[in-house]
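Journal club side-thread
Mid-discussion, someone asked how the predicted structure for our own chain would compare to the paper's figures. Pasting it here so we can look after the session.
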Amino acid sequence: MTTASKLPVTGGRRLRMSTRDRVTVVMMVLIPSAVVAALVWLPAVATVVMSFFDWDGFGPFTEAKFVGGKWYSDAVTIYPAFWPAIQHNVIWLLVLFCVATPIGMQIAVLLDREVSHTKFYQTALYLPVVLSMALIGFIWQLMFSRDQGLLNALFGTQIDWYGDPKINLWSALIATAWRHVGYVMLLYLAGLKGVDPSIKEAAKMDGASESKTFFHVVFPVLFPINVVVLVITFIDSLRAFDLVWVINRGRNGLELLATEVTRNIVGEAQRIGFGSALATIMLVISTVFIIIYLRIVMSEDR
């Protein structure tokens, strides 16, 4: 580094970087950008493009036939699994948002009081978060197995929790909520640790109860955490895949958008264009909520 680059900025003089520093900064920007473009943006653009073509995925793409919006029309009109998949994704979102998220938030509030063995409870509840959803599916298979499952052994029943289309969605939701509760607990616990204790003390001195203090004083302060939890919950419900694929590959009452995309692109159907159209629909839906999240965050910063 040159002597000029070591000098501090004084009297309006700008710090001049050496050529080596400039190259380092440029490489630190270009390399991650190139990786993201190659692994995220280019595949996303290619998926959108392929959704307008009929291509089997084996021959050259130049031989693909342009079909316009045919795949999108087929998805919403004649594809039998599309609307059940949408319905299941919506149920997935509602359960995570209306059941698992409040439970995780309540646990965070309790642990924030520094009860005894807090570290043990935090570790136990957060442990499922570090596990993959596929592994969680295998773990809960030990609970839900019809012949050797823990639940049937305890209650003396022979219920096929994962095989019965009337209840397998709810069984899968119990497994995914087990993981989601720990994630939400961690986010809210981190947010609660950053709340100024004087705010709670002031509310207590004014005669507010603990519940009123939380919902009228603390909860509004946690607005950034609330937005993050909302977006994460929505995206997790939209891209739910691993768990149901382990259970039965997204069939027999467990159809989801992500499993239908996989089935049509790399599964037995081998309809690249149609699967790309389903993936594009997922991309558009998730992009809407990501834009809403960014607008909220940027408006709050301003």
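Post-session note: The two ends are 37 Å apart (CA to CA).
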